[in-house]
Task: structure prediction
Amino acid sequence: MEQDYFLKRVHLPSILLAFFGFLVSLYALIAHVQILLKPGHGLLCDMSATFNCTSVIGSSYGELASIPLGSYGMSYFMILFAATVMPLISQITEKQHALLEGLLAICGLITVLILIYITYFKIKAFCPTCSIVHGIVFIYSSMKVFRFFSSWRLKATQLYSGDYFSRFAAVSLCLGIPPLAAGLLIPMAVNYFSPVAEAKTPLKLSEVSQAVVKSTVAEDKKNSQDVPNMLSFHKSNFVGDGEDYRLGDDDAPVVVQVFSDFGCPHCKQVNGPLLKAQSDVGLHKVVLVYRFFPLSHVCNPAVPSEGWYPYSCTLAEATRCAGAQGKFWEFKEWGFSGQDWTDDERAQKFSQAGLLAQAKTLGIREDSFKQCLEQHTELKKIENDALIASKLNINGTPLILINGVEYSGPHTAEALEKAMGAY
Result:
């Protein structure tokens, strides 16, 4: 039977799905901004290294063309809303409407499949917020694709061709562009106004046994102020609690110190940008000192609980034990790779047998390495480093200090390079 009337009703479930999808995408955008404002602070949906929104939203895949994916989601759901209400603002037939919504559903479905592949096979993490968005798109697509094929048999009379498309395009632009604009402008504003470590007169660090020393800068007597605690670092295993492992020239004018945890997604993500920024500025100008602040009271008295990542302390000790044989940085990279493994893989590889196997792979003497682990040779050093971080009022990992001043800017190589080069 030929259809010769225009559709004049809206589908309430589609409106509810679009509205709910918009709200979840808005939260994803807010989470992206939180990551920029407070790097190192977890999100509400960070439950473990595997179930972790920060690993996905805060990764390099979390934005496209400098716009967070949450903004794209908000824009997409606004366009779905525009398509749903088209019968109220334009003369559109059942078949035309089914075709419009079907095409939007197929585009969304393809995009979600690509994002799922990236999330689970590239980033290797489960983002609860992202998964809710994916689920909404799947539900919407299942309804609209079915309707699309069901309505294909209808023979819609072209009573008013083209009007519905032009009106849909106009409404979509009005509703879809603002979220994209917000996604572009908000991170730019955050990066512009976020406090980045300002340039201070560089102070050369002397090798002293005390962990923290105080200095002052008198560059301008009127504005003279105390410089935050400047950390010294030990250059030998025979001084204090042991050597502070570092890259770069010990006499470099810029000293970057990092307090890190193996279970912290941000610590892993900033690892590469830190090394690239140091390399671009020059290892003769920047020395990178690596310390540990395990988020577990097993080896960190400042933390009230055992923490959700049971390998933080074990890996911190093992990495320093490897450092005693010149393999600190290689073992550290391997330790961070555990965030990409399954729980069973971590349990196997981070057991004593697994740690010894990795030590053998790196050419570390197993007997000395095993003795270091069993006697907890490096535990006191880790506890003292954690105590220093506590005195510096650490409120999240990684804690990055550049010449003793806390860096709280973006965790990108470009921003870190700019902060290091400012000294």
Q: What stands out?
A: Residues 163-193 form the longest helix (31 residues). The mean pLDDT is 81.
